[in-house]
Design brief:
This protein is an alpha/beta fold. The chain is about 45% helix and about 20% strand. The strands form 3 sheets. Strands 1-11-10-7-6-2-3 form a 7-stranded mixed β-sheet, with helices on both faces. Helix 6 links the parallel strand 6 and strand 7. The radius of gyration is 17 Å and the shape is globular. The N terminus and C terminus are likely disordered.
């Protein structure tokens, strides 16, 4: 298992030198069936922009317990509070009854993950829960580009969605945020442009990748060696320096 790699380094550098990407963005939005797309350096970058665009500061963002650790890092970096919900072991996505119980007045968004190239089995129910609760739905489609549900591509169901279009280092802007919401798109684009990084400002990806690297080391050295669940509690609060 790879822990802290060069792709994270390149992702951060691309914040400083993002070029024009309009043709790819237009074609990608058309392919998914949304109005807007914004190419970014990395999946976590796209998610960070989306979370910032809907303003999750001091609000809870619900995520499944079975999820990549950088999703939590992006939430914390955007000022939000990760709120874990258990999964249905049969399909690796939310247990809908648990999801309903975890929603509170502090909940700002639900992140729905499409795993293994497939559509989340209870997609329709989760969409309904988000609508009933009047909270944003974010689709994480990083591993399921091209999947469809009833003739509609995933990524077109949420308020915003994120994708991996490829993983080649020489094509940094192939991690994409899509949305039909003009305000979300313009907010995300403005944040991306403003945080292109004059050096006096923090590197947006840097705290995330450092925390990611530290967490992976802790996982490898401590969790696999000591086999203690107590260390998992530390990981929840690890990136407190954002």
């Amino acid at each position: 298992m790879k822990y802290f790699g060069m792709d994270d380094f390149y992702a951060s550098l691309n914040w400083m030198w993002r070029g024009q990407n309009s043709l790819f963005e237009e074609e990608f939005a058309r392919h998914i069936g949304t109005k807007f797309a914004l190419g970014t350096s990395h999946g976590r970058t796209a998610l960070y922009l989306g979370l910032r665009a809907i303003d999750v500061r001091e609000r809870e963002v619900i995520i499944p317990a079975f999820i990549c650790t950088v999703v939590r890092h992006a939430i914390v970096a955007a000022g939000g509070i990760p709120r874990f919900v258990d999964i249905d072991i049969e399909n690796f996505t939310y247990d809908v009854s648990e999801l309903r119980n975890k929603i509170s007045e502090r909940t700002k968004a639900i992140i729905l993950v499409h795993y293994f190239g497939r559509v989340a089995r209870n997609l329709k129910q989760i969409i309904q829960v988000a609508k009933e609760s009047n909270i944003a739905l974010i689709e994480d489609c990083a591993h399921s580009l091209g999947a469809e549900y009833k003739g509609k591509r995933i990524g077109a169901f949420g308020d915003l969605s994120i994708f991996f279009a490829n993983k080649k280092y020489d094509q940094f802007r192939r991690r994409v945020l899509v949305t039909d919401n003009l305000d979300i798109y313009e907010n995300a684009k403005r944040i991306l442009e403003n945080e292109k990084i004059p050096l006096k400002k923090r590197l947006v990806d840097f705290p995330i990748i450092v925390s990611y690297g530290i967490e992976q080391i802790v996982d490898k050295v401590l969790l696999e060696t000591v086999k203690s669940d107590n260390f998992k509690l530390l990981l929840i609060h690890l990136p407190t320096f954002y």
